[in-house]
Design a protein that fits this description.
The complex is a heterodimer of chains A (454) and B (573).
Chain A (H helix, E strand, L loop, with lengths): L3 E2 L2 E5 L2 E5 L9 E5 L5 E10 L2 E6 L11 E4 L5 E4 L6 E4 L15 E4 L10 E2 L4 E3 L3 H4 L4 E2 L6 E3 L5 H11 L1 E2 L7 E9 L1 H13 L6 E7 L10 H15 L3 E7 L1 H14 L13 H9 L4 E2 L5 E9 L8 H9 L2 E4 L2 H5 L12 E2 L2 H4 L9 H25 L6 H18 L9 H12 L12 H7 L2
Parallel strand pairs in A: 9-17, 14-20, 14-21, 16-17, 16-18, 18-20
Antiparallel strand pairs in A: 1-7, 2-3, 3-6, 4-5, 4-7, 5-6, 8-10, 11-19, 12-13, 12-15, 21-22
Helix pairs in contact in A: 10-11, 10-12, 11-12
Chain B lengths: L2 E8 L2 E5 L7 E5 L4 E9 L2 E6 L11 E8 L1 E4 L6 E3 L6 H8 L18 E5 L6 E2 L4 E7 L2 E6 L7 E6 L2 E3 L4 E5 L4 E3 L2 E4 L8 E3 L10 H6 L7 E5 L6 H11 L4 E7 L3 H13 L13 E6 L5 H19 L4 E7 L1 H14 L13 H10 L2 E4 L5 E10 L9 H7 L4 E2 L4 H5 L12 E2 L2 H11 L4 H25 L6 H18 L13 H23 L4 H5 L16 H17 L1
Parallel strand pairs in B: 8-21, 19-24, 19-25, 20-21, 20-22, 22-24
Antiparallel strand pairs in B: 1-2, 1-6, 2-5, 3-4, 3-6, 4-5, 7-17, 9-11, 9-14, 10-13, 11-12, 13-15, 15-16, 18-23, 23-24, 25-26
Helix pairs in contact in B: 5-6, 7-8, 11-12, 11-13, 12-13, 13-15
Classes of the chains: A alpha/beta (454), B alpha+beta (573).
Chain lengths: 454, 573
């Protein structure tokens, strides 16, 4: 029987300060029982002989100094079981779908441990998402963490859902288990996700964690860790391939800032805590493949860039940890292009591991490089054409200008349920490139040109 | 050893009470004896940064001093190893504890059971002082010199035994009582002693055309690669690690991605060193402290890396240290500093940031070692400026000490121009000091060719601004030709494909010949224009477009010569 303390001395924001305790472990789980019997959970953030600081996940509203505090002497744990698939849980891991209780097979510490770098296996399996701009130009591979950098009002959720629906590893029939972690998204958005999962029958192979906009902000700090703990369980204990979709990382970081300022820490850039990089790393780095294990974890975090600013600390630090990024463009969205993926700032760092002969096709890299080069130049020329008029451009420039437009119309744009094969995508790419004289295709070797140029 | 108790725990920084410790002394924290280091002493309270996750630590648990500063083990067995930031052998930990790093794990950095064949080079009765080489051990293809450690009192050798030994066996005794084994320890925060520093006037050949030709680095030089994410920083660094003509490579993955480390770990053993035909890993030491590993160990990883580099330098080798990324290191300092509630400097970084950066880079250089040999450490530090903003403190403080600046450009990367080094903003302050070497070893007109490349590229930049306004057709003929030549330089010289088996390495001679062939076209083009040839004709010369093929050609000499001939023929016709 754990001791209960009635020694709360201070309540500030999401933090509760408790004094005169016995030695309490750092990071321990805490239960706070209010006089009416309602309980809240929290975690020890700071412990000393004089005072213990607890962050309360449900927020401190309604708490007073009469509440009793109980320290459970262990870290936060997630009960796991294979029966979790098909279930909907709240942000703290409790079922909210009126289904039966989940009988845990094990209880896992949600902090997770770092994978020993020598134990990691290199990701190398090409995931076909059916979206040309990703498959050909920013290839996703199994075990990668590839975030979607979006802005408010852009269709990032649709893209994530489309990927979740269509993602498969060609040549291997095993499909993905999808773990969805919602952090501070609206009820409406959440419903669309769940409905889509139900309609496509994907829910059977999914696990949903929902922390909605009106749920406690501090709870958001554990939601992704819950989701990733479940992911590790399915991937490394049950040999499954797991795709983790987390939305919206921006809300997570806001919560982190809230806690930081409640603790009166010295803030870093834009008020975010100085340890945000390390903190985000403990989330994003829980992706990958472990040698000798059959499963894998692929992450698709979504973050909305505040003011569409890619240099804002959240996308900036994320980009330094993740293996590339898919960037959505408001301009393309305005031009009614779906998916509005801007390939130029987008990048997949692991692309080269998953493409080429035997994986996709031998011409994949060269075609992609050529498309990048031509599209980048074509886009640059738009500015010039606007000043001097298209007529005064050279023939070569006119061709590139036209190429950029066609590229957006035929290659970038596709329907929301259009599932393109990599062969189909490559075919379109070659058709676009056929408008360019052979000598100008300098990224493509003569042999490849001979073999594939229509 | 002195004992105290834990008083307060807030993340990776803890405070102990009643502990009688020295600054930067290593302590064992809590019941699990986690490793930590003293970073502040305030009356009865000692602040400790802990190298492992502190979850579950309670006030009242014991803290014990070890009497030693944070040190690394130096001796045979370092090469081909993978360590974390505090030199724990990761492969060994995996064997013991499995795929995830749990807490309180320890294993000696150097294998205690492995035996090494020790050959003596000194003899009984010889004078021995710090730096004296007493014998050698063969570590893969590297002759690993065993020296009298720098902190030993001079004396005479009374006993010296040849044979097979483990790293801890005594192989040599001195008349003052010192016993020497194959390994010794050295505190990481202290630079190892040398006799004197030399001027860096020999280039570190990287095989990357843009570096060797336009922005060369010297052996013993320091370079910074800043780059916003996605600008090809990691590829550039691993290309340098693979191809630079250093004897030993130390690669520090400081706060970087796990999967990227895996790529290095999987790729290096497969890579064959073009000079020795041995796996590259056999002359490499990797220090991998990924972003999700404890932040205090990340702070230490840079020091661990440079100390190991100094050890091999002391044997007379040229060492290349790649630190990826020093920004993550600075951030680790900031994180710990803010937990100490120190008054922050610019952007929350501690005010000692610039001193620490300068101290670190000063440990590079070309030196006469204690043993009288010449060795060097070249440091190539990656910087990751937030938002690509070079005015931030880490980049700025780094620029104050480094001599090379290789500015990666995200725009170039987007156009798939690799290595995406911006030729206008990058610089090398070694061009003059290295000129004599290139003159003597590659070609008399090396510097002249380089200068012409640079001036054409600068001219291009100026012309492109005009083109932006009036279009390229409105330019005079000569300028149009210049633009074409600049494009050739960019495509045929600067761009290099890291993934192509031949193009991945370009020896200085090849780089020089490529420059010469491009200049040949330039000379012919300008001369023909003077002589009245139509510009359009000059631009349509076919052979010049084939210069790029030499990149992928083993027998580039013959090809480039043929192209030159063909160009001459076309111009004549």
């Amino acid at each position: 029987m754990e001791k209960e303390y009635k020694t709360i001395t201070k309540i500030a924001g999401p933090l509760v300060f408790v004094s005169k305790t016995e030695p309490i472990g750092y990071g321990d789980l805490v239960k706070i029982i209010m006089p009416e019997g309602e309980t809240k959970t929290g975690q020890v953030l700071d412990t000393s002989e004089d005072i213990v600081v607890v962050q309360v996940f449900e927020g401190t509203s309604g708490l007073d100094r009469d509440a009793r505090v109980k320290f459970l002497g262990e870290n936060i744990k997630l009960p796991v079981s294979e029966d979790m698939l098909g279930r909907i849980l709240d942000g703290a891991g409790k079922p909210i779908d009126n289904g039966p209780a989940i009988i845990p097979e094990d209880k896992l510490d949600i902090t997770g441990a770092a994978i020993n770098p020598t134990s990691r296996a290199s990701p190398e399996d090409f995931i076909q998402t059916g979206i040309s701009t990703i498959d050909l130009m920013n290839t996703l591979v199994r075990g990668q963490k590839l975030p979607i950098f979006s802005g408010s009002g852009l269709p990032h959720n649709e893209i994530a859902l489309q990927i979740a629906r269509q993602a498969k590893v060609t040549g291997k029939e095993s499909s993905f288990v999808v773990i969805f972690a919602a952090m501070g998204i609206t009820n409406e958005e959440a419903q669309r996700f769940v409905m889509d999962f139900e309609q496509t029958g994907a829910l059977k192979r999914s696990l949903v964690f929902l922390n909605l906009a009106d749920d406690p902000a501090v709870e958001r700090l554990i939601t992704p860790r819950m989701a990733l703990t479940a992911a590790e369980y399915f991937a490394f204990q049950k040999d499954m391939h797991v795709l983790v979709i987390m939305t919206d990382i921006t809300n997570y970081c806001e919560s982190l800032r809230e806690i930081g300022s409640a603790r009166e820490e010295i803030p870093g850039r834009r008020g975010y805590p100085g340890y945000m990089y390390t903190d985000l790393a403990t989330i994003y780095e829980r992706a990958g493949i472990v040698k000798g294990k059959k499963g894998s974890i692929t992450q698709l975090p979504i973050l909305t860039m505040i003011g569409d600013d890619i240099t804002h600390p959240i996308p900036d630090l994320t980009g330094y940890i993740t293996e590339g990024q898919i960037v959505l463009s408001r301009e393309l969205h305005r031009k009614n292009t779906y998916p509005p993926i801007d390939v130029l700032p987008s990048l997949s760092r692991l692309m080269n591991l998953g493409i080429g002969a035997g994986k996709t096709r031998e011409d994949h890299k060269q075609v992609s490089d050529q498309l990048y080069a031509n599209y980048a130049e074509g886009r640059d020329l738009r500015g010039l054409a606007a000043i001097v008029g298209e007529e005064s451009l050279s023939e070569r420039d006119k061709r590139l200008l036209k190429f950029a437009a066609e590229f957006e119309r035929r290659f970038v744009r596709q329907a929301r349920n259009e599932n393109r094969t990599i062969e189909g995508t490559l075919k379109t790419a070659w058709e676009l490139l056929s408008a360019i004289p052979e000598a100008e295709l300098i990224r493509i070797s003569p042999e490849i040109k001979k073999k594939y140029r229509p | 050893m002195a004992k105290g108790t834990l008083h307060r725990i807030t993340g990776p920084v803890v405070i102990a009470k009643g502990l009688n410790a020295k600054m930067y002394e290593v302590v064992k924290v809590g019941n699990q004896t986690l490793m930590g280091e003293v970073i502040q002493i305030n009356g009865d309270k000692t602040t400790i940064q802990v190298y492992e996750d502190t979850s579950g630590l309670k006030p009242g648990e014991p803290v014990e001093t070890t009497g030693l500063p944070l040190s690394v083990e130096l001796g045979p067995g370092l090469l081909n190893s993978v360590y974390d930031g505090i030199q724990r052998p990761l492969a060994e930990l995996r064997k013991q504890e499995g795929d995830f790093i749990s807490r309180g794990m320890t294993a000696p950095a150097l294998d205690r059971k492995r035996k090494w064949e020790f050959k003596t080079t000194a003899k009984k009765g010889d004078d021995a002082k710090p730096g004296t080489i007493i014998g050698t051990v063969r570590e893969y293809d590297t002759e690993h010199a065993i020296t009298i450690p720098p902190n030993t009192k001079p004396g005479k050798i009374t006993e010296l035994k040849e044979g097979t030994y483990t790293v801890t066996d005594t192989v040599c005794k001195l008349d003052n009582g010192h016993e020497i084994s194959l390994m010794h320890r050295w505190p990481v925060r202290k630079a190892r002693d040398t006799q004197k520093k030399l001027l860096p006037n020999i280039p570190l050949i990287t095989g990357q055309r843009v570096f060797d030709a336009l922005f060369p680095i010297a052996k013993g030089g320091v370079a910074a690669i800043p780059g916003p994410f996605g600008s090809g920083k990691t590829v550039s660094q691993s290309q340098l690690a693979k191809w630079a003509d250093a004897n030993v490579i130390v690669y520090v993955g400081c706060g970087e991605r796990g999967n990227e480390m895996t790529e290095v770990l999987e790729e290096f053993p497969k890579l064959v060193d073009p000079r020795t035909e041995q796996p590259l890993m056999n002359r490499t030491v990797l220090v991998a402290n990924t972003s999700n590993m404890p932040v205090a160990a990340r702070e230490a990883s840079i020091y661990t890396g440079i100390t190991i580099s100094e050890y091999y330098r002391d044997m007379g080798y040229s060492v290349a240290l790649m630190a990826d990324s020093t920004s993550r290191w600075a951030e680790a300092m900031r994180e710990i500093s803010s937990r100490l509630q120190e008054m922050p400097g610019e952007e929350g970084y501690p005010s000692y940031l610039s001193t620490r950066l300068a101290d670190f880079y000063e440990r590079a250089g070309r030196t006469i070692t204690l043993s009288g040999k010449e060795g060097s450490i070249s440091v190539i530090g990656a910087v990751s400026p937030p938002g690509g903003d070079f005015s931030e403190p880490v980049t700025q403080n780094t620029l104050r000490v480094v001599k090379n600046f290789w500015a990666l450009d995200a725009k170039l990367a987007q156009r798939r121009h690799f290595p995406s080094i911006n030729w206008l903003t990058s610089y090398s302050l070694y061009l003059d000091t290295l000129e004599p070497w290139f003159k003597e070893n590659v070609a008399e007109d090396w510097r002249e060719s380089v200068n012409r490349m640079m001036s054409i590229l600068q001219e291009e930049d100026r012309l492109l601004e005009i083109v932006q306004l009036i279009g390229s057709d409105a330019l005079p003929d000569k300028e149009r030709i210049t633009l074409r030549i600049a494009r050739m330089i960019r495509e045929f010289l600067l761009q290099q494909n890291a993934f192509h088996p031949i193009d991945t390495y370009s020896e200085p001679k090849k780089t020089h010949m490529t420059m010469k062939t491009i200049l040949k076209y330039a000379d012919l083009a300008y001369a023909s224009l003077e002589a009245g040839m139509r510009a359009q004709k000059i631009l349509e010369i076919k052979a010049k477009d084939r210069i790029g093929e030499a990149k992928f050609e083993k027998n580039y000499e013959a090809l480039l010569k043929a192209i030159e001939k063909e160009m001459e023929r076309e111009f004549k016709a």
